[in-house]
Amino acid sequence: MVARRARGAIFPLVASAGEGPVYAEGEEVKWVHVASTLGGPSTLTYITATGKEVPATALASRAP
Length: 64
What we know:
The protein has 64 residues and is mainly beta. The chain is built from one helix and five strands; from the N terminus they run E-E-E-E-E-H.
């Protein structure tokens, strides 16, 4: 069986008009990594100013 490798792109996170910065685990998010695999789910990972990678699922589970 061949392992499927996620392919993705990294985008800078730009605050929209009237919105402040986005934070993940207490750090400001600077980039967003979107990845997918053929036939599999897409993933979203926030990358902070210090380079910490925080999966979006980790934050979604703590949403009010």
